[in-house]
Amino acid sequence: MLVTTATSTDEAARGTAVALLPVGSFEQHGDHLPLTTDTLVACIIANRLATTYNLLLLPPVTMSCSHEHEDFAGTVSISSRTLIAIIGDVQSSLARSGIKHLVLVNGHGGNYVLSNIAQEANVAERRVALFPGREDFRIARERAAMETTTSEDMHGGEWETSILLHAHPDLVRSMYLRSDHNAPQRPHLLITGIREYATKGIIGKPSVASAVKGQAALDSLTTSFGEVLKVLTG
Questions:
Q1: CATH of the domain at 186
Q2: Is 61 helix (H, G, I), strand (E, B) or coil?
């Protein structure tokens, strides 16, 4: 299940002080992946973590800061101000019910503001974690024997396609085998958006993706999260 089916009674019995909030997006992912890709990936990771570590799983934020993709059909964004407000409200509500810690499970690399949210929240005490981090991604790619780096595989490539081939293969269209696009240098992305570097919206090598790589990457992230949880709640 992508969305929790737990009841209030279930959560009362769980009694955790940590909640997981998947943060996705609604944006183009080329011809082979759905607009909901980032939300799906965030949910897949968050579900795995919630099950493994017995944590509260929240429903996802399904739209976020996708402004670099807005000239592609179907993409919908919200402002960074709105995303900050949503997460702030969620954090406050959780705190009122005794849940002190919030983990933002981010599925969209363009949500830069999440780093600022976590840093600000943790000034007085440890309250918010952002996951996965750069090192989590690097280790997961290595353990999954992926051919590309995070920088090379920016959007709709080996990483995202592998995760969905593992968890939801029915959502991956066969053109992933011929959708590779190389654009390692993107110096003006924040000015021009992604189309300047990829007319079809893909930067990476989805053709080398596999379900096996997707499963290995998830296994690695699940292990890496243990240390994040220890630091957050320690």
A1: 3.40.50.10310
A2: strand
Asked if residue 69 is part of any domain, the answer here is yes
Q: Is 53 exposed, middle or buried (0-12, 13-18, 19+ CB in 10 A)?
A: middle
In the block, tokens 């024997």 appear at 145
Percentage of the chain modeled with pLDDT above 90: 99
b or e along 168-190 (b: 16 or more beta carbons within 10 Å of the residue's beta carbon)? Answer: beeebeeebeebbbebeebeebe
Which residue is it, tokens 């240098």?
185
Q: Quick check: 213 pLDDT over 80?
A: yes
| Whole-prediction pTM | 0.97
Residue numbers of the domain that contains 69: 15-233
For every residue of 168-222, DSSP letters joined together read -GGGS-GGGGG--B-----TTHHHH-GGGT-TTS-BB-GGG--HHHHHHHHHHHH
The 8-class DSSP code of residue 67 comes to G
